[in-house]
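Re: export button greyed out
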Amino acid sequence: MHLWLIPALPFVGFLINGVFGRKLSKTVINLIAVLSVVLSFALVVKVYLTAGDLAATPLHAHYFTWIQSGAFNVGWDFSVDKLTMIMLMIVTGVGSLIHIYSTGYMEHEEGYYRFFAYLNLFMFFMLTLVLAGNYLLLFVGWEGVGLCSYLLVGFYIVKDSATTAGNKAFIVNRVGDFGFSLAMFLIVVNFGSLDFGQVLPAVAGKPTGTLTAIALLLLVGACGKSAQFPLYVWLPDAMEGPTPVSALIHAATMVTAGVYMITRSAPIFTHAPAAMETVAIIGIFTAFFAATIGLTQFDIKKVFAYSTISQLGYMFLGVGVGAFSAGVWHLMTHAFFKALLFLGAGSVIHACHGEQDMRHMGGLKKYAPWTCLVLACASLAISGFPFTSGYFSKDAILGAAYAYAPWMYWVGVVTAGMTAFYVWRAFWMTFWGDYRGHGHPHESSWTMLGPLVVLAVLSIIGGFVFNVPEILSGMFPIAEGAKDAGAPSEMMLTAISVAFGLAGIGLSYLMYVVNTSIPDKITSALGGVYTLVYNKYFVDEAYDAVIVHPLIQGSESVLWKTADAGIIDGIVNGAGTQSQGLGNILKLIQSGNIRSYATWVVIGAVALIVAIGIGGAR
Amino acid sequence: MEFLIATSLKLAIIAFILLTALAYIQWVERKVIAHVQVRMGPSRVGPHGLLQPLADVIKLITKEGVLPPHVNKVFYLAAPVLAVFMALISISVIPFGTSITIMGHKTMMELADVNVGVLVILAVSSMGVYGIALGGWASNNKYSLIGGLRSSAQMISYELPMSLAIAAPLLSAGSLSLRKIVNAQHGSWHLIPHWAIFAFPAPQIFSFIIFMIAAFAETNRIPFDLPEAENELVAGFHVEYSSMKFAAFFMAEYANMVTVCCVATLLFLGGWHPLWPVRWGSNFAAPAIFAFAGAICIYHGINYVRPFDRITLPAFGVIFFGCAGLFLIPQGVPVLTPIFWFLAKVSFLLFVFIWIRATLPRFRYDQLMSFAWKFLFPVALVNLLVTGFLVALVS
Amino acid sequence: MVDLLFFGLFAAVAVLCAINVVVQKHPISSALSLVGVMASLAVLYLLLGAPFIAMAQIIVYAGAVMVLFVFVIMLLNAGIEVRRGRSWMATIFGIPALLGLLGVLACLLVRWFPDAPIVKFGDFPGGSPRDFGYALFTQYLLPFEVTSVLILIAILGAVVLARKELD
Amino acid sequence: MPAIPNGVPESWYLALSAILFVIGVAGFVFRRNIITVFMCIELMLNAVNLSFVTFANHYKQVSGHIFTFFVMVVAAAEAAVGLAIILTVFKNRSTLNIDEVDSLKN
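Workaround output, generated via the alternate export path:
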């Protein structure tokens, strides 16, 4: 079982494209990039087929010992259990589709090879993250995907906003990674190892306080990577990157790494109820918060970005209330329909010649029928329309949430309604009405539509084809318990959430198709509140005022003016002047004549040897 | 004591054969080049000019040794001696064949089996440059100075690819002793012998070619004979030399040729191992060849072209048949056959040297240098790397 | 006995050549005497059981380094040196410093090696190329690599210095 | 000294190396020709190499040889650079007398 091949293939692709890409023709680049990922997908399938019962016997592969100090050692080892397998499927599968899509989407871009090299590198790191058998290796992947997200968000290097967005994503993630590394230190201190296989079983005996600390720190990391409440600010800006990137990294795979990580360390969290509570609260709050912002955005990608944040919030809610499998389920379905939404949005933007503002779109359904169709599927799925994928996963989460704390359920339901509303709002504004943009829109090529169709099918049927809670039942019986607790009102809960979803859809139809004057009325009616929401609650500005500005001021006045200029330079210059004085004395013996120097050396040598000899050193 | 006797005996024999050979290689060269250029070559002195070398030697000895007034006497006189000394000394570590047993005293067919023989040869050949450089400098003559400069630069430059080319077969042989290296090339795979140039896993054909090219440069032979480029430097480093001093330089050059050919044979061409295995009757190659030569001679003697052929050619024929018979004596076979194969290979390589001289023009100096540094050196390096990799892979 | 003979012979040659290096007026004579020193030292290395080092000594020092020296001397056509001493240090302290150095070294030898063991040819087989290479490529691999980098830098330096643009 | 020993005492090798070294130093101090001075440095290096090899023999370890080897390599590199420097100096000042190459004075 050559697990190492799975990440190695994209890496090889990265090397080839990154090193020789400039020379290669686009066809070759496509071939290398797509093949490497598709092959690793095929490998994953092969592993799945040949692995046998993963729940009973997870695969382990130890390649080499990376760090060893005393008893503590970290190996470069991969392990595959069912959770990993699901993630692998999602990453490689969706990844391959998006690679194929990108070959069409990026056709006319500069730095073509650069793009695919980065994309392959991302696949490598993501797969490392998923396959990792210990926290440190996971962290390697974690940082790697962060790097790739930075590179790809700032892909349009000439665009200033893009580069700044990349920096923002990177820096905000640092905060989260800080938490993560602290968590790892704590784990090392308390468990003396980083292997999942040794840490997680040993959780039971440890004091709850420690576990809570670890869990909370891990949560900080997860919040950074998965754009949860305090640290979500980078994700909307990350939409500056090319759309396939937003689909792959900022919808399907990377941002779900946090959820995966929490699920992976489920034992720690289950033994730290307080941390679980926090996770759930952050999740539900983020879901609601982001959904409200999503209501007001006009940039189609921004809308989907906020919906991503909100859906991630759902996943956090799921894992927070202990329904880990439900969280992973939603992770998977979300990977399908959100990737589809972004790719569809990309196709729409493509159709409108790079226009992203929905106010300049509309009436596209006759220009781009296929895009319209697949986006409809995606929107149905995300708004939890019965028997679409979103329906199953979301209801699993909500059910668990009700079992945990009813109010979370209600907030979740309302959020579901809002989600349905703004997604369909985007849909109507894009496809209904008549075209308000410039130029002449056109349908995209089939290299782009093909993946869309596949994803559309997945996001419709993906829910009950892959019933994650059943697959993971071996790992997370808790999820089952939650289901039982919610059982009596199961049907009713489902009905309510579906009703909210349909209500959202209907409302959006009413407001953006039937009578398009309503939104303006509401806007004027709400006034201040609307501006507040429209400007994303001024969170960025707040961060700027509270954190960034003082930092700059402090470093300028204290570190630069006082410490550097005053103290350090003072010392240096003082040393300089002193040595000048000394030099004036020593310069007398500097005759500039090599032979006299040689004589000095000889005399010194004699003195030295005499000293040694007298000293009797042997 | 016995060691001393044996060594001195061997020394005498080898010295005699080598010096005669040196003289006659010159005759062969003149003959070959003549025939390449459709001339007769030396044919006056003795039958087919066979006594020409003797005549040359006598002439050179009896000539007046001119000592130009403006030279630096010590070095001027030391240079040729140094050159010929360095050229002859390296023959002492070269094995010609397997052991021989004379009246119970078993002795190896070489002067000294040094366990770092290859290094010794490299070292001595690297010293060889002094003779030429000094000669060029001491003559206190612009042409010869330039010749000396060129030769020193050229020899340093070509020593690197040569050493690298030598290192590659050492990797597969796993020893520095020439005898061990040759023994490592013993045996054969079907018809293909285990010589270094065919060796599994890394055939050394490239390093062989590189070595030969570098050897041409190290021995200042055409196409690399810039130190004595007649049409640029009159005669290069030995403009000012005459009589035996001049002859010494020539001896040095030919001795170097013989040495590098021997080294090439030992390192790459399997030393004294036959071209095809004994069970295919390689032992009868030597007599066959000699008999063939004898037959040809006698044939041409019977229906002759030139009058004196009537006497000489049949005489040679008889001699050749005698040699053939010698190779058929059972006791002689284990001793003589290896020597025959060794000498055959060496003389083939010498023939290549002469052939090239008759064929190729001379390089330009910058071409020479850039060829050494920009082409030969990298290729040798890559070859060494590949060889090392393959050897490591197999072992 | 034979050892002693060889040692005496080549030590004498080495010392004489070394003195010659210093006293000869013409650099090329010094260079050749230095070659003599190196060659005789190579023989002593053989006596000390270091065949590889001996050969390397000849190849590297006598065959390459000194040829470079001779080459440069020829190139610059360096003649007899002019004696225009302006180094009071060397003239005043030179001789005593040297004598002091010699004396100190001598007394150290006497003090530290009152009864040094006897070296016989072949009683130290450890210097064969095989052992040498083994040690070089296992225990001393890092220094070896570093040295290669050093050589690379040296090459670059030499090229840069000797380029035509400099004058 | 006792009767002629069968073999050579190590101290003789060391003495030889010391003598060579001192001769080298002498040349280094008293010669004025840059090239000669440079050769004297090589001489000193050789002297040190001899003692290295001697100690290798004394301790029956190959390390001494390794050190010698490294010294050789360094010497080769040094020769390359040093001679290049000498060439440059000669180009710029057309002298090889080190007493005249003293622009670092005061």
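Chains D and B do not touch (no CB pair under 8 Å). The button fix ships in the next patch.
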